[in-house]
Amino acid sequence: MASASLQFFAFILALFGVFGDIAATLLPNWKVNADVGSNIITAITQMQGLWMDCTWYSTGMFSCTLKYSILSLPVYIQAARSTMVLSCILSAFGICITTVGMKCTRLGGDTDSKNNACFAGGICFILAGIFGLVPTCWYTREIISNFLDQTIPESSKQEPGGAVYTGFISAGFLLIAGVIFCSSCFKREQGAWIYPPKQHHFPSAEQESNAGYSLKDYV
């Protein structure tokens, strides 16, 4: 029962991780810079994402431009696009597989099949967390290196946006969920290996016949 509740808790974490992963992939605020002029009306917030660049004015106007050309983008943005999409796909597969393998569901067949499904789903979550953590770290490193570069003017320097933090948190949720699912199956198999089931040895028919008295001796 405790293992089933732990798997349910991991499944909730994985759901938050999947939704956060998708949101981080689509949000346009991976980079944010604020250029505030002498008047509050001229305040502008520029945001750059993986798929579009957006500009928000203090007057309430909001405009976005899609990034159509892939080859013109920097390498870290191209890598972030592919890895974040792959992370979303793997996490979605993990949700489907663990739904079948969880102990609180009636799907998946016998216990061994459900354990294998949970283990496979946990591996998908771990890989999704890694694929989601790598681009966020790489993207943050590029932002920090550009921010510390003295040759770049202050007006062009940017800071990490909310999508980066969402990606970090989502990757952490997916990694924790994957470790919980894999460890729950591993503990069960390890316990079965340390404490093997007792084998009941029943006497064979030959032993029973030898244990009894032979009637030939009395004829």
From TrEMBL:
Classification via PROSITE patterns: CLAUDIN (PS01346)
Protein origin, superkingdom: Eukaryota
Pfam families assigned to the protein according to its UniProt record, in alphabetical order: PMP22_Claudin
The keyword Ubl conjugation appears for this protein: no
UniProt KW Ubl conjugation keyword: no
A single GO cellular-component term on record: bicellular tight junction
Signal peptide: 1-24
Cell compartment(s), UniProt: Cell junction, Tight junction; Cell membrane
GO molecular function: structural molecule activity
Transmembrane feature ranges: 84-105, 117-141, 161-182
Keywords: Cell junction, Cell membrane, Membrane, Signal, Tight junction, Transmembrane, Transmembrane helix
Membrane topology of the entry: Multi-pass membrane protein
Role, per record: Claudins function as major constituents of the tight junction complexes that regulate the permeability of epithelia.
Family: Belongs to the claudin family.
UniProt name for this protein: Claudin
Organism: Setophaga kirtlandii
Gene: Cldn20
